[in-house]
Specification:
Blueprint (H helix, E strand, L loop, with lengths): L1 H17 L46 E9 L6 E5 L2 E6 L11 E8 L10 E10 L1
Parallel strand pairs: 3-5
Antiparallel strand pairs: 1-2, 1-4, 2-3, 4-5
Length: about 130
């Protein structure tokens, strides 16, 4: 019986060596069946393009706003706010001199979110005021 077992083992080894009994012998040691990663690794520093251009000017320029509403004193001393539903503007600039709480006005100005204020609302740099 032992001779028959050895003969069967020998036939299987010969079959594997010639490719019989399967479509592939499987990956060989060192072969990685996963796709190769061609992206730069974390160890590779980024390279800077040699073709650089001057930066473009900002494209988020604000448009002039015309708003009508009622002037209110803000929560802080010196704050003048225009309540113009649905907006609340903090009125800034020399054109606002002489305005008092309760005035009904139409203002023309430029939204200026870059200006910091302790007042509530979006800062509006006023160019012109007309009392209604």
């Amino acid at each position: 019986m032992a001779g028959l077992g050895n003969a069967a083992l020998a036939l299987m080894l010969v079959g594997l060596g010639t490719g019989c009994g399967g479509t592939s012998a499987g990956p060989t040691p060192g072969d990685d069946p996963r796709p190769k990663d061609t992206s730069p690794s974390a160890d590779t520093p980024p390279t800077q393009s040699q073709h650089t251009a001057a930066p473009s000017p900002p494209s988020d320029q604000f448009k002039v706003v015309t708003a009508r509403g009622r002037v209110e004193a803000g929560g802080q001393p010196g704050c003048l706010e225009l309540v113009a539903y649905p907006s609340r503007w903090v009125l800034i600039g020399a054109a606002t001199e002489g305005l008092v709480e309760g005035d009904e006005v139409e203002v023309v100005g430029l939204p200026s979110p870059q200006l910091r204020s302790s007042c509530n609302g979006m800062p509006l740099k006023v160019r012109d005021v007309r009392k209604l």
